[in-house]
């Protein structure tokens, strides 16, 4: 029915792409800034790929595939047949905190890039993720959380895809006195806009917590929401870039710039990024990393530097197995 | 001249003024403006109003005035006729010329030519007539003027205070006004004045004037041939305050003729307070309206109260459970004095002894001082309730807290199933502090730990002194020295404190809380120093929003006095206990 509608439409494909940013802007304006009550917290799915860390989290577009499960579900259509991934993250100068992630994704309806199209996509994609977060708290006690996530994406046209991800997290203290759970929902939209080499992305994230802590008189409920807008471009010289901003409490919470250069094609990728936090105080966190591909295997490493007063620098290592070996 | 005679004469003069002379004045071709004069004078040579000045302005109608004659008569009943005056003019005359003449005369109070050879006229009222002659046919007689020649001032025959020299203005049933009464044989309310000043004893032998009184114009009485007058005082000074003390009321009688004033004084004792009653037992004098809960072993044999009053105690009575205590049950102790009486009231026979039910008794004590002020009327009765309690309170419990501490001050809290009961906290059995349970039975008290391991216990002690058994011990270990005392799980409770002991004197300690994504939530500066700091996070971000529950990263920055900086990162979990 949608194809019929598009055939009946007087707009030509190029004109439709030009009208899309206006449509997305209108959609966001109608939605308004998502309701937000609280910042911080855990009990949610975190980005797991080293590529994202190396690009300061600005690596959600240009169809990254399974890597986007934790950040932009609409980009899951970048999966070609199937993918499996593993990620490990360790902070520097902060003992006792570790994040491990495992994900699997599958897609159907693979399209080859057509004339003017630079990002191959599939028509439908689904991904499952599992994350384990463990910590040794300041008093030496243990803390653990696990999160299961399901992501779905659909691309009705080459230039457009939408996605959704649902998380369920559970965990608490090692002694079992404090237990909690949380549900999170993320909606994403990705579109090629204005130019075949430009992509626009929007993600709305909403987290609902529900806890039964020890010594609490009743269950606690909390909610946190945010919206992320991103613009990515494939640049000449095997270079790609993404600019991203996240809004919370009706103001820009953080901005990020990510760059990726593939001088030898998919075999080697060199990455860098800059993350700027600007809520309480403005801080700059540079990041860099590299990726290596051999056959169906991808190995990525990312590092984000934090100043001494910050929460600690991060190391992340991720491994992917890509089903069709592209 | 007696007052009734004076009043009769003055009334007659007024009648003459209104009926007889007015037509003459209206028809006269000349008139007098003024005159100005002293109505009363006393030619007794004391230098005060010894003569009567008379001034006036005479004006002719058409021809110049050629004679002004003054006539002073002792009786107004027979006014001089103009023809008589022309035939035999009065001796006091002034020659004048011109249409307008300002005349002045100083009457010395004598007859005839008013010269020193003439005898002084007797005290009484006199009437001045002014006669103007304008040519041969014109004669005008001005309206008469009453003058009083008075060489004797008012006399003070007697002075008294009523109802009593003791003045109790606030006591119910007593007069709120003190009367200063004086008797006089010749006090004239028209010409004489009476005033009084109130002086308060300053305690050093002097008197301080605090108020002024005026004669009550509505009061006049005749007793024993004397006029009786009064002044009233409500006991207030110029600031409208009623102050206890000795007062002296000084009365002054004077007249308008300038005779010397007569004074008199009377002393009174203003007492606006009831006797004070205090319980001598139970640690000293205590005011009434209290309840005492006593252990049967600490019950005294009797109640001893001290009743005091500046002016002496007249009566003291006691009631037990609304029944008056007999003279056998109340006894005046030998150390009593008129101003302070010590009275012993016997307690019920056998109360508090073995087998007696532990109930309570209510005592009421009232007293009256010599001036008549009653304690129950002025300050409320003295009430006292004694209750016997021989039952030990419930055993309290101490809330569990972390056993390891790096700073010595810790707040211990707990619960006892009895409200308003004292809680004694002991470290290894040695009393270290006490608290009182609130309406929910909760108690809390900051205590100072001693280095090493110690066992803390709580014991409940009620008002009667009954003690519970000690609570279960709470073992706490205080280890001084560099360390971090950071709770792993932050619940946002009031006593949740992050403690930092630095390895050297530090200038400041800052705490930064980050999300796992690296976003700064809140920055706090720890208090204290130079080597022990503490901080409390209310689990809100810099904008005042409650942060989400879960993990966050704490970055601890220590700036030492030497300038060196040290950073420590810890993971903490927010597990909020309240919405």
Strand order of the largest sheet of chain A: 1-2-3-4-5-6-7-8-9-10-12-13-14-15
Query: Ends of chain B: how far apart?
Result: 99 Å
Q: Number of DSSP strands of chain B?
A: 44
- The percentage of residues in β strands of chain A lies in over 45%
Cα shape of chain A? globular
Largest interface, per-chain counts?
A-B, 58 and 47 residues
Count of runs of 4 or more consecutive helical residues of chain B: 4
> What global shape of chain B is seen?
elongated
Task: Find the structural class of chain A using helix and strand composition.
Answer: mainly beta
* Strand-pairing-aware structural class of chain B: mainly beta
- SSE run of chain A: HHHEEEEEEEEEEEEEEE
Tell me the total number of β-strands of chain A.
15
Number of helices of chain A: 3
Radius of gyration of chain A: 20 Å
Question: What do the pLDDT scores of chain A average to?
Answer: 83
Any low-confidence stretches of chain B, pLDDT <50, length ≥5?
A: 1-28
Largest sheet of chain B: 6 strands, mixed
Task: Present the secondary structure layout.
The complex is a heterodimer of chains A (326) and B (579).
Chain A (H helix, E strand, L loop, with lengths): L1 H7 L4 H19 L18 H5 L27 E10 L5 E12 L15 E13 L5 E16 L2 E14 L5 E14 L5 E15 L7 E16 L3 E10 L2 E11 L1 E4 L1 E10 L5 E12 L2 E8 L9 E9 L4
Antiparallel strand pairs in A: 1-2, 1-15, 2-3, 3-4, 4-5, 5-6, 6-7, 7-8, 8-9, 9-10, 10-12, 12-13, 13-14, 14-15
Chain B lengths: L2 H17 L2 H6 L3 E7 L2 E2 L10 E8 L7 E7 L8 H6 L4 E4 L4 E8 L16 E11 L3 E4 L3 E5 L8 E5 L3 E2 L10 E7 L7 E10 L5 E8 L6 E3 L2 E8 L11 E11 L6 E9 L5 E4 L10 E5 L7 E7 L4 E8 L2 E2 L5 E3 L7 E7 L13 E10 L5 H4 L3 E7 L8 E2 L5 E2 L3 E7 L6 E6 L2 E7 L5 E7 L3 E10 L12 E5 L4 E3 L3 E2 L7 E4 L4 E9 L5 E6 L1 E2 L3 E4 L14 E11 L4 E10 L5
Parallel strand pairs in B: 2-9, 11-18, 20-27, 29-35, 37-44
Antiparallel strand pairs in B: 1-3, 3-6, 4-5, 4-7, 7-8, 7-9, 10-12, 12-16, 13-14, 13-17, 15-16, 17-18, 19-21, 21-25, 22-23, 22-26, 24-25, 26-27, 28-30, 30-33, 31-32, 31-34, 34-35, 36-38, 38-42, 39-40, 39-43, 41-42, 43-44
């Amino acid at each position: 029915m949608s194809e019929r509608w598009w055939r009946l439409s007087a707009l030509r494909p190029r004109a439709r792409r030009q009208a899309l940013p206006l449509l997305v802007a209108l959609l966001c304006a109608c939605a308004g800034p998502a309701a937000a009550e609280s910042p911080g917290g855990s009990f949610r799915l975190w980005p797991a790929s080293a590529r994202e860390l190396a690009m300061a989290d600005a690596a959600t577009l240009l169809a990254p595939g399974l890597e986007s499960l934790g950040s932009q579900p609409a980009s899951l259509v970048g999966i070609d047949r199937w993918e499996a991934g593993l990620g490990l993250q360790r902070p520097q100068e902060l003992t006792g905190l570790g994040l491990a992630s495992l994900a699997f994704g599958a897609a159907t309806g693979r399209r080859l890039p057509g004339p003017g199209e630079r990002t191959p996509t599939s028509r439908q994609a689904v991904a499952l993720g599992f994350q384990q977060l463990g910590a040794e708290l300041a008093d030496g006690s243990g803390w653990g959380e696990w999160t299961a996530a399901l992501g779905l994406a659909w691309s009705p046209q080459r230039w457009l895809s939408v996605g959704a991800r649902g998380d369920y997290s559970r965990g608490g203290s090692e002694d079992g006195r404090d237990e909690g759970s949380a549900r999170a929902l993320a909606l994403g939209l990705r579109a090629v806009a204005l130019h075949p080499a430009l992509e626009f992305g929007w993600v709305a994230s909403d987290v609902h917590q529900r806890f039964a802590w020890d010594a609490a008189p009743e269950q606690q409920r909390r909610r946190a929401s945010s919206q992320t807008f991103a613009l990515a471009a494939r640049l000449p010289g095997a270079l790609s870039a993404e600019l991203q901003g996240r809004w919370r409490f009706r103001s820009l919470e953080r901005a990020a710039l990510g760059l990726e250069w593939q001088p030898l094609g998919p075999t080697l990728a060199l990455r860098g990024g800059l993350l700027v936090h600007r809520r309480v105080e403005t801080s700059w966190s540079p990041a860099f990393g590299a990726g290596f591909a051999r056959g169906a295997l991808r190995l990525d490493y990312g590092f984000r530097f934090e100043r001494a007063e910050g929460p600690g620098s991060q190391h992340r290592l991720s491994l992917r197995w890509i089903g069709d070996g592209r | 001249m007696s007052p009734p005679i004076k009043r009769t004469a003055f009334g007659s003069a007024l009648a003459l003024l209104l009926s007889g002379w007015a037509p003459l004045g209206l028809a006269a071709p000349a008139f007098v403006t003024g005159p100005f004069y002293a109505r009363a004078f006393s030619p007794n040579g004391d230098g005060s109003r010894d003569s009567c000045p008379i001034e006036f302005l005479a004006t002719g109608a058409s021809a110049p005035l050629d004679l002004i004659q003054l006539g002073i008569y002792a009786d107004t009943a027979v006014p001089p006729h103009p023809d008589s005056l022309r035939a035999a003019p009065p001796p006091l005359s002034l020659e004048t010329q011109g249409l307008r003449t300002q005349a002045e005369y100083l009457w010395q109070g004598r007859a005839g030519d008013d010269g020193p050879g003439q005898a002084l006229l007797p005290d009484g009222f006199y009437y001045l007539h002014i006669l103007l002659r304008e040519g041969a046919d014109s004669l005008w007689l001005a309206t008469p003027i009453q003058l009083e020649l008075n060489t004797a001032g008012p006399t003070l025959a007697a002075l008294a205070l009523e109802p009593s020299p003791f003045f109790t203005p606030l006591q119910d049933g007593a007069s709120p006004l003190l009367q200063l009464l004086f008797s006089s044989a010749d006090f004239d309310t028209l010409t004489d004045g009476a005033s009084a000043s109130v002086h308060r004893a300053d305690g050093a032998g002097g008197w301080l004037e605090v108020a002024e009184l005026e004669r009550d114009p509505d009061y006049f009485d005749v007793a024993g041939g004397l006029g009786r007058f009064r002044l009233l005082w409500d006991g207030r000074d110029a600031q409208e305050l009623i102050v206890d003390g000795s007062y002296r009321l000084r009365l002054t009688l004077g007249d308008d003729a300038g005779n010397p004033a007569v004074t008199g004084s009377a002393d009174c004792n203003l007492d606006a307070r009831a006797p004070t009653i205090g319980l001598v037992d139970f640690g000293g004098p205590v005011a009434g309206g209290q309840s005492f809960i006593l252990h049967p072993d600490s019950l005294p044999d009797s109640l001893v109260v001290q009743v005091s009053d500046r002016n002496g105690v007249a009566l003291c009575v006691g009631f037990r459970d609304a029944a008056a205590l007999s003279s056998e049950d109340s006894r005046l102790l030998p150390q009593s004095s008129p101003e302070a009486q010590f009275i012993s009231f016997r307690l019920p026979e056998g109360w508090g002894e073995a087998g007696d039910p532990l109930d309570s008794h209510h005592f009421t004590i009232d007293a009256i001082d010599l001036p008549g002020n009653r304690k129950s009327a002025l300050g409320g009765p003295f009430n006292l309730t004694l209750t016997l309690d021989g039952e030990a309170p419930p055993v309290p419990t101490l809330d569990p807290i972390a056993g390891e501490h790096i700073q010595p001050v810790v707040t211990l809290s707990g619960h006892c199933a009895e409200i308003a009961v004292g809680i004694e906290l002991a470290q290894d059995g040695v009393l270290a502090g006490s608290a009182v349970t609130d309406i929910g039975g909760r108690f809390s008290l900051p205590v100072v730990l001693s280095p090493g391991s110690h066992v803390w216990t709580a014991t409940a002690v009620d008002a009667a002194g009954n003690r519970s058994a000690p609570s279960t011990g709470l073992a706490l270990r205080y280890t001084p020295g560099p360390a971090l005392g950071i709770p792993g799980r932050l619940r946002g409770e009031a006593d949740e404190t992050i403690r930092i002991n630095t390895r050297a004197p530090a200038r400041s300690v800052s705490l930064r809380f980050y999300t796992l994504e690296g976003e700064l939530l809140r920055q706090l500066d720890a208090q204290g120093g130079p080597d022990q700091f503490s901080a409390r996070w209310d689990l809100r971000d810099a904008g005042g929003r409650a942060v989400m529950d879960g993990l966050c990263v704490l970055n601890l920055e220590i700036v030492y006095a030497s300038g060196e900086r040290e950073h420590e990162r810890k993971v903490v979990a927010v597990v909020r206990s309240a919405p």
